[in-house]
C-alpha cells in the first residue's frame, strides 16, 4: 500500500502518520477508492455547539454530510465507514434529538452508502447525563448507548466475523465438552433447527451488534505524557476495543485505516498494533501533539516528552520510530523520510478549523 498525500504528517511510524488539519482538505488529497476503512467519532452535535458556536441540528447534518461524501469517494468498493454518534437531547427539554438517525438516512439516501449493520455501543461506565433530567428531576434514565453505524460503499463490504469471535460462555463450554449431556437436537418454537452441529467448537461465540465496552482504560503513557506537556487528555477518547473490533472484522493486515476526527488517535494506535496502515486527521495541533505519546515504547524524560510535543505541534514531521532506537535527547535529525506512506512534503501542515 502506497497511499500518496501532499501534506506531510506531524508525526509518523513505519505504518502510518498523523496529520494536523481539516479532514475535508486532507481527505481530498487521497486518491479515490484507496481506503479500506474509515472509522471515526465526530464531535457530537452538542459538543460542537459548545465549541464552535450555536449550530442548529440542520447545520450539523449539512456539515457532517460534507465529510461523508468525501469518505464515500475515497473508500474502496469493498470498503466500510464506521461512525459513532452519541445521542443528544433537544435544547432545554427532556426530548431526544433525532440527529443521529437523520444523518444515517441522509447518508444512505443522498450519499449512496448502504447500512451494512447498525451497532450499539453500551458503555457501562458512562456517567449519568444530562444532570438536569437524570439526577436532579429524575425524569430520564442514564443514556449509556451510542449508535455506531456501519456503512459500506457496496452491499458486499469486506468482512470476516471469525476475526472477532467472543469467548464462549461457561454453559456453552460445557455443551461443547459433552453435547449429549446438555442438549437434545430439536426444532425450536422459532423454527430454528438446532441440530448436533450446535455443540461444535467454532473457536468462539458470534458477537452481537451490542458491543459492551467500558470506557475506563488507563491510557498510561498517553496521560502521563499529557501531564508533562501541560495539556488535558482528550475528553472523548474511544476505548481501544471499539476500533479494534471493527478493524479486525473489516480489514486485513496492510489494509489502510483512516480516522478523520482522530482526537487522541486511539484508532492509529490500534491499527498500528494490528498491522494495518493508518492515517489520522485531526484539526487541533494540541491533540495531535499529545497523541504522539501513544506511540512511544517507554516513558521518556520529561524534557524529551516536552520536546516531542513541541516538535509535533509545530508541524516538524517527527519520525516516532527514532524514539524507539535513539537515546532521548538526541532526536532532532530524523525528519528525512516518511516511511511507507511516501508522503511528499508541501510545507508545514496546519490547516485549522475555523
Ligand atoms: C469525538 S473527538 C474524537 C476522539 C477520538 N475518537 C479519540 O479516541 O481520541 C472528535 C475530534 O474531531 C476533531 N475535529 C473537529 N472538526 C474537525 C475537522 N474539520 N477536521 C479534523 N478534525 C476535526 C476535534 O478537534 C476532536 O478532537
Word description of this protein:
The protein has 354 residues and is of the alpha/beta class. It has two domains: 10-160 and 208-332, Vaccinia Virus protein VP39 (Rossmann fold); 167-205, no CATH class. It is 33% helix and 17% strand. It is built from 13 helices and twelve strands. The protein has a ten-stranded mixed sheet with strand order 9-5-6-4-3-10-11-2-1-12, with helices on both faces. It is globular and about 65 Å long. The two termini are 33 Å apart. Residues 327-354 have low confidence and may be disordered. Residues 22-23, 41-43, 234, 236-238, 261, 263-264, 266, 281-284, 287, 353 line the site of S-adenosylmethionine.
SSE topology sketch:
Blueprint: E1 11-12, E2 16-20, H1 23-29, E3 35-40, H2 45-52, H3 57-74, E4 75-85, H4 99-111, E5 114-122, H5 131-136, E6 145-152, H6 170-177, H7 179-182, E7 186-187, E8 193-194, E9 210-212, H8 220-229, H9 241-250, E10 256-259, H10 266-273, E11 277-282, H11 285-291, H12 302-313, E12 318-319, H13 321-325
Helix pairs in contact: 1-3, 3-4, 11-12
Bound molecules: S-adenosylmethionine (SAM).
Low-confidence stretches: 327-354
How much helix is in the residues?
Answer: 25-40%
**CATH level 4 superfamily of the largest domain:** Vaccinia Virus protein VP39
CATH class of the largest domain: Alpha Beta
Gyration radius over CA: 22 Å
What general form does the structure show?
globular
Q: What distance lies between the first and last C-alpha atoms, to the nearest angstrom?
A: 33 Å
Averaged pLDDT: 85
